[in-house]
Amino acid sequence: MQQKKKNIYILLLIVILVWGFVFYQLYGYFFSTPSYANTEEKTIINIDEIKKDTFSIVANYRDPFLSQKRVQTVNYQVATKNGTSKTKKHTPPTVLKWPSIQYKGMIKNNNSERRVAIVNIEGKERIVKEGTTLNELKVVKIEKETITVSFQDEQKTINK
User: Which domain holds residue 154?
Assistant: First the structure.
């Protein structure tokens, strides 16, 4: 019996200490003034040392809505011998950007002599016949080892 009373008093003391610690933490959280770390770093930036970033945008890509290549016109002034300046227009030459094309092979129907080609255009494999047009790319002629295609009035022969 004495041992049970002793255990009850020890456990009661531990419970009081735990609840005292909980109330101490709550009191400190709600009623104490916050302390902030004061770390101010002053960085001096010399504006003269900042270098200007230069870049140029090459915008001679095909217009996806008009299906035509956009030509950029640049105006610049040229000084003449008599001291006056006149403005010249400079249009850069248009470079035709062919899509990536790989000729994989040909399938021929012996009864009708019709030929179809397996072509990889921009990473997509297609089966095309002569006269087929895909994204402005027209298949002109299909042979066993080569295929002739035209793109914007320019023809190319692609080997297997």
Answer: 101-159
